[in-house]
Amino acid sequence: MSNKPRVLLVDDQPGVLEMLGLFFDRAGFIVEKATDGKMALQKVNETQPDIVVLDVMMPGMSGIEVCKHLRSQPKTSQLPIIMLSAKGEVDDKIVGFEAGADDYVAKPVARQELLARANALLHRAQYTQIPTARIVTFVGAKGGVGTTTMAINVAAALNADGKSVTLTELQSHPGTMVHHLNMALAQDLGDLLALEPSQLNWREVNRRVVQHASGLRLLTAPQDGADFTLSVEHARSIIDALTIRTDFLILDIPTIAGKVMREALELTDLIILVTEPEVVSVKATHAKLTTLHDWSLSDRTRIVILSRSPSATMMKRDEIEIELGLNQNSDMILGVIPPAPEAFQQASQMGIPVIINKPHILSSRAIMDVTNKIKLYTHEI
Ligand SMILES: Nc1ncnc2c1ncn2[C@@H]1O[C@H](COP(=O)(O)OP(=O)(O)O)[C@@H](O)[C@H]1O
Ligand SMILES: [Mg+2]
Predict the structure, then answer these.
(1) Counting CB atoms within 10 angstroms of each CB, which of 137, 179, 213, 223 has the fewest?
(2) What pLDDT band is residue 245 in, cutting at 50, 70 and 90?
(3) Which ligand is nearest to the CA of 335?
(4) Over the stretch 281-319, which tens digit does the pLDDT of each residue have?
(5) Ligand 1 atom 13: residue of nearest CA
């Protein structure tokens, strides 16, 4: 992903488009162009510009109509729009503002003025963007129970279902997500932890987000050897920035302890505590549930039991429920994922989540079922 802002220029006069295109390009923008209203709406959809410069007078759909349409759609209701018109009359400005334009520049365009206004709008937009994502956080009762595996697969399932999903491994130390996905990434969370929290606006955070082949957006833990500190302010700013323009933010966090993780959990809509059907993990689950209760976060917590290898000593669901003080068939337990060691190993080798690579095996179906419950709990059906 590029850190350059993307501008969509809309004008029916090719000469004006050409001139403004060159100018914005030199000013460091990625330039998209449209020559009429319909094409403008299409380009907004396809290229997701950060700002639109819109001519009022165009044959067919006018700039005013385009503006009204963009404002009526949730995804573009906040998109910065500058209107451009040959008429510098007060009346036309009012019509433009009433249609929802943020600013107005008269033609012939003073390019420097247009650029200054565009930059000012972009700057302001970073402070007024509305967070829309549901936050679902995966955390293990202890290390090595399959938390990252669950986070990746649920994220992939939501993504395959047409949701826009950002998956983030939120920790100051190196993680395993890159290995699960068999990727070598040039940018990660470490780049953000090297900055001051006050610098972590939408643009800075999102330029570190990488697109996986599946369409999943990824922000992975710092690389091996790195040494960073993750402060409460860092966590808050990063989470805030990542909840803009995405349906789901999936967090994979190391543990339920300390101020930073508490902050992340308090910002979370649904906490998924991952555990194994084995005595030590279940005891650890009990302890984590107590902490979540003390933090008044029990209501938003659910449990997923993941068994990684077939074993005779595996605890049954009802035994786990008794150990945790839950009712039989408690809806605290979202699901039980059966083992499939080979499928999961192969998935990591290929860098393709099991749910995509082998959607029909029992483990995938169980993860799908958990994903549907997550959608239900977060009202994102
Ligand atoms: N249902 C499963 N069956 C078999 N192996 C699994 C299953 N789920 C996860 N695994 C394996 O368990 C290992 C540990 O998982 P990981 O998600 O990295 O744990 P954590 O994030 O809790 O440390 C991985 O090698 C993964 O492939
Ligand atoms: Mg992990």
Answers:
(1) 213
(2) confident
(3) 1
(4) 999 999 999 999 999 999 999 999 999 988 878 999 999
(5) 146
| Residue 141 CB less than 6 A away from ligand 1 | no
Assess whether the C-beta atom of 340 lies below 6 angstroms from ligand 1: yes
Q: How far is CA 98 from CA 68, 84, 177, 302, in A?
A: 9, 14, 48, 46
Specify the CATH number for 134-377; select among 3.40.50.1110, 3.40.50.720, 1.10.260.40, 3.40.50.300.
Answer: 3.40.50.300
List the structure tokens of 27: 């000013």
Q: How far apart are alpha carbons 174 and 45 in whole angstroms?
A: 36
Please name the residue ranges forming H helices in 227-380: 232-242, 258-266, 279-294, 317-324, 341-350, 354-357, 362-377
Ligand 1 center to residue 350 CA distance, Å? Answer: 15
Which DSSP string do the residues of 49-97 spell out, in sequence order? Answer: -SEEEEES--SSS-HHHHHHHHHHSGGGTT--EEEEES---HHHHHHHH
